[in-house]
TrEMBL record, chain A:
Keyword hit for Acetylation: no
PANTHER family in the cross-refs: MEMBRANE PROTEIN, MEMBRANE PROTEIN-RELATED
UniProt entry tagged with the keyword Transmembrane helix: yes
Lineage: Bacteria, Bacillati, Bacillota, Bacilli, Bacillales
Membrane-traversing stretches: 78-96, 102-128, 140-159, 171-190, 197-213, 225-244
Name by which UniProt lists this protein: DUF1129 family protein
Keyword set, alphabetical order: Membrane, Transmembrane, Transmembrane helix
UniProt-listed Gene3D superfamilies: c-terminal domain of poly(a) binding protein
SUPFAM superfamilies: BH3980-like
TrEMBL record, chain B:
Record InterPro entries: Metal_resp_DNA-bind_regulator (IPR052509), Tscrpt_reg_PadR_N (IPR005149), WH-like_DNA-bd_sf (IPR036388), WH_DNA-bd_sf (IPR036390)
Protein name, UniProt field: PadR family transcriptional regulator
Pfam family, one: PadR
Transcription regulator PadR N-terminal domain ranges (all copies): 15-85
Length: 254, 108
């Protein structure tokens, strides 16, 4: 027992239509499976696709799509990651290597502008995309614009900081501990909220080798190689763990 | 209100009644509606309605193997669904009475 070409075509079209409207993948699978079952049984009883989907398949697809929510919310949770990541990287790196924090005025203003630029940019594009019904590729492109722009901005701040001379602000021991703790708490809060431990994992992967190898008598080059090995292994392990988890989730939903 | 909108509201209520009678899956509901004379409505119409009713918490669904073989999504009413059915039934009886009265009186 298999479907007629026309039914198959309809199900494929529906799948693509819902995907390109940015709907949740599991929900898409669920409704297409349900309709496939329905069409199978209908055709076995001598009914046509038209009797199931009506005169206008596109109007029918729209009515299905209208009852499903967009899936963008599930990955906008990664926005804070992009904001927090570079700042945490800079601050923790300096805390581990130097102890007390000291940044040029230029760098500090740069971080503040970067944060504002990022938040305002994200707010604007989220508002824009929620009003418009565009394809997923276009939506992802629009949403990544503020990320790319603010990242480039931060990189250029880091780069220009080495060339421009502005007064250095020393935070002292207590100031450094306070800043470090605040960033640390923000990361914990973000990890709990987004249910991902990607920032802690990446930070650990980047800084653990430094901490572990600092006191050893190894030569600089072997430190570098072992350090890189630890970094890539940790990130690799994490990606593998995510991959296995996602696969289990997919199998569970089928 | 357009014809289809009015129909949707009515089919909503009928689906609640059908599901209340016996836990069932989509194709079964469509068949039953057809048997009751709703054959002008295309069968697929029920799915967007079921999706909405599920979102509103009127029905729940479980995937289960049927006696015939494939896994099917079976729907049943929640407490809210049963309440909605009672309300629909009252509204409909009132509406039916009014429409009948108008027709009877005015078309004499």
């Amino acid at each position: 027992m298999s479907l007629t070409q026309k039914s198959k075509k309809f199900l494929e079209d529906l799948h693509i239509y819902l995907l390109s409207s940015g709907k949740n993948l599991n929900e898409i699978k669920e409704i297409t499976k349900e309709l496939e079952d329905h069409l199978l049984e209908a055709e076995a009883n001598g009914k046509s696709v038209d009797q199931v989907v009506g005169d206008s398949p596109s109007a029918y697809m729209e009515s299905i799509s209208g009852e499903m929510k967009s899936d963008l919310a599930s990955w906008t949770k990664y926005f804070p990651l992009v904001l927090l990541g570079p700042i945490a990287f800079t601050i923790f790196g300096d805390l581990i290597n130097g102890g007390e924090l000291a940044y040029s005025l230029f760098h500090i203003i740069g971080i503040i502008v970067y944060t504002l630029l990022f938040i305002i940019g994200v707010a604007i594009v989220l508002k824009y995309t929620s009003k418009k019904q565009s394809s997923v590729t276009k939506e992802i492109f629009i949403l990544s614009l503020p990320i790319i722009v603010s990242m480039l901005f931060y990189l250029s701040v880091l780069f220009l900081d080495t060339m421009i001379d502005t007064p250095i602000v020393h935070f002292g021991e207590i100031g450094s501990i306070v800043i470090g703790s605040v960033v640390f708490l923000l990361i914990i809060a973000f990890s709990i909220w987004s249910k991902t431990i990607i920032i802690p994992v990446v930070l650990l992967a980047l800084f653990l080798p430094d901490i572990l190898l600092k006191e050893t008598a190894l030569s600089e080059s072997s430190k570098l190689i072992i350090g890189m090995f630890i970094t890539y292994s940790l990130i690799g392990l994490y990606l593998f763990y995510i991959f296995v988890k996602e696969r289990k989730k997919q199998q569970g939903s089928e | 209100m357009s014809h289809t909108q009015m129909m949707k509201g009515i089919i909503d209520g009928c689906l609640l009644a059908i599901i209340d009678g016996k836990e069932c899956y989509g194709y079964e509901m469509a068949e039953r509606l057809g048997e009751y004379g709703f054959d002008a409505v295309s069968e697929g119409t029920i799915y967007p309605l079921l999706m909405r009713m599920q979102r509103e918490g009127l029905v729940t669904s479980v995937r289960r193997a049927s006696t015939a073989g494939p896994q099917r999504k079976y729907y049943s009413l929640t407490k809210e669904g049963k309440q909605a059915l009672v309300e629909f039934s009252l509204r409909w009886q009132q509406l039916e009475k009014s429409v009948n009265a108008v027709l009877k009186k005015e078309m004499e």
